[in-house]
Specification:
eight-stranded mixed β-sheet, alpha/beta, 2-enoyl-CoA Hydratase, Chain A, domain 1, globular
């Protein structure tokens, strides 16, 4: 009887807690719906200015979960827009007579180099309508200054800061930590440039890796400097000198060197915005945020039954279904398959932003891209990263479009195993004993070192997969297999260099890819749909709640160190032979 009451009260407590959680979720949803109903579509006054702030991580597309970023105090959504909606709203403002110009109210830019290029190009296109762009910041990082450089006038706070010292690539090495833990990495790879494993076996970059990083960096930096030179009418040589000597050390330096047009406080910038938008000092400045403007209906276009599907492939490549931040071979393959079989979809644009991952999962996706190409045009649009496995899933497409700063290539594979026997034995006092049916039954165990025969078996598999990889690339790109091997070997390339080598067909963003797809499909009018369809907000809320909470806590506790934690976590999740990029370049 005592046990009965014990389990009964435990069950009642569980039900009670579930009801409380359900109540708060329901309340959360109700307030969210009321908030959205109350807000409605905002009105846009004449002489309005679109205010753009990019102080959040810029993802490929906006989440369709209306409660993501919900502020519990105000019960209003503070959801951040993805690149797709940022580009859409800049284009919408270009043709909106009520919008006189754009105000770039910038701080730090949390996006990759190619993402910055796409936004910057959209801003240049906006300027072609002879509308103005003004930029202001208290602190210009290199990324935000790159965006701001398109502006007609650049304002810097008189006590502010402008960073301009060149690109920096910093790799983290774990060899020393593994030695202290007595964990031995066992590496099997093909490609002298396949440096994804170097952090575990070296304490610094290999000569080959240093060479490729330097060349990649120089290619991106040259484009970066060239774009700013054109916009600011300062020679590339002068800009190189400013960066190399870090001549901008205070606001006065930035003004003297013509990097900015005026040192001004925010209220002074507001006065300038009033003047250029045709308002007096007595008038209230008519700024409309990008988030609000996103709710403003765009100009209606003629409906078309013909569609081009943008299929998003974002994140590490793994087996399974995947999600908005992970490419699952099962989920993405099914999405491509459905688009192939849908007769209303006349072309596919595969938007790839991935450092790669599982070679097997990459091959599964590659097969579906190949089948889709036989049915309708398939064009790949590369984002910040489309390397290794990211290039693997791209190479079968009819055409590949990349930004000049896209990091791509990295055609190579590797296997990574860990022998933790000494750590278990010496650090923890744990020993292991085994019984097996065959000589190779325990291959891959981390409780002992691999034998020479086991290493040979895995090496042969790595070589087989590498040969398959370069064969797919050669066939897809109509290149000689030996030539692919010569530019492969795990080496990374910028989009600019990749085009010269034949790995990429055209330079541009997602709109360039859409134009190519429409031309190949001989489409006049068409509408664009985005796939895979994003999950219903309640389903996503229930699925991702625990993950979001743990990730949020980790980010808060670790701060800047979170990226190192995340890198280790990514490595620990790897299964099987990998086709993966070793690093990323940040503008800061």
């Amino acid at each position: 009887m005592k046990q009965f009451f014990k389990f009964m009260f435990a069950s009642m407590l569980g039900v009670f807690l579930s009801l409380i959680i359900l109540f708060f979720i329901s309340l959360f949803i109700l307030f969210g719906i009321l908030s959205m109903a109350k807000d409605g579509a905002p009105s846009v006054d004449n002489n309005s200015i679109l205010e753009i702030t990019l102080d959040h991580p810029v993802k490929e597309r906006t989440s369709k979960n209306p409660f993501e970023g919900m502020n519990f105090n105000s019960f209003k959504s503070e959801q951040d827009l993805g690149l797709n909606d940022i580009l859409k709203n800049i284009d919408k403002a270009k043709n909106d007579s009520r919008i006189k110009g754009i105000f770039l109210n910038l701080s730090t830019f949390q996006g990759g180099i190619s993402t910055a290029e796409e936004i910057r190009n959209a801003l240049i296109d906006f300027k072609n309508t002879h509308k103005f762009i003004y930029a202001y910041s208290e602190y210009y990082s290199q990324g935000t200054y790159y965006l701001a450089s398109v502006a007609d006038r650049i304002f810097l706070n008189p006590q502010g800061e402008l960073i301009f010292h060149g690109l920096n690539t910093e790799l983290t090495f774990f060899k020393g930590a593994l030695e202290k833990l007595e964990v031995e990495p066992e590496i099997i790879r093909h490609g002298k440039f396949k440096s994804a494993v170097e952090p575990f076996i070296n304490d610094k970059m290999s000569p080959e890796n240093r060479a490729q990083v330097k060349e990649l960096q120089q290619s991106i930096w040259k484009k970066f400097i060239g774009d700013i030179s054109t916009s600011r009418n300062i020679t590339s040589e002068k800009l190189m000198g400013i960066a190399n000597e870090m001549e901008v050390r205070n606001p006065e330096d930035a003004l003297r060197l013509k990097m900015v047009d005026q040192l001004a406080y925010f209220d002074e910038v507001q006065s300038e915005l009033r003047k250029i938008s045709g308002l007096t000092e007595k008038n209230k400045l008519r700024l409309i945020s990008m988030k609000k403007y996103d709710k403003v209906p765009g100009s209606s276009k003629a409906f078309s039954a013909k569609k081009i599907a943008i299929i998003y492939a974002v994140g590490d490549i793994m087996g399974g279904e995947g999600n908005d931040d992970v490419i699952g071979s099962g989920g993405l393959s099914e999405t491509i398959r459905k688009a192939r079989l849908d007769s209303s979809i006349k072309a596919i644009v595969l938007r790839v932003n991935s450092p790669g991952g599982s070679a097997l999962a990459s091959d599964v996706i590659w097969r579906e891209v190949l089948l889709a190409k036989k049915a309708k045009p398939v064009v790949v649009s590369m984002g910040d990263l489309a390397a290794s496995g990211g290039y693997y899933i791209s190479c079968a497409a009819d055409s590949i479009v990349a930004e000049p700063g896209t990091i791509t290539g990295s055609i190579g594979v590797f296997g990574l195993l860990f022998n933790a026997q000494k750590m278990f034995n010496n650090k923890l006092g744990i020993t292991f004993d085994t019984v097996k049916t065959g000589k190779f039954s325990g291959i891959g165990s981390m409780t002992r070192p691999m034998t020479a025969q086991e290493k040979e078996i895995i090496q042969l598999e790595v070589e087989r997969i590498y040969d398959t990889f370069i064969t797919h690339v050669a066939e897809g790109r109509k290149m000689n297999k030996a030539d692919v091997d010569s530019i492969g070997q795990g080496r990374v390339w910028s989009g600019t260099d990749a085009k010269q080598l034949g790995l990429v067909d055209a330079l541009g963003g997602i709109n360039t890819a859409l134009d190519i797809a429409a031309r190949m499909a001989k489409l006049g009018q068409y509408r664009v749909i985005s796939l895979p369809e994003q999950k219903d907000f309640l389903q996503k809320l229930l699925e991702d709640y625990s993950t979001d909470v743990s990730e949020s806590v980790a980010k808060k506790q670790l701060g800047e160190s979170y990226k190192y934690y995340n890198r280790i976590q990514s490595m620990l999740k790897m299964q099987g032979i990998q086709a993966r990029l070793p690093f990323e370049i940040e503008m800061y």
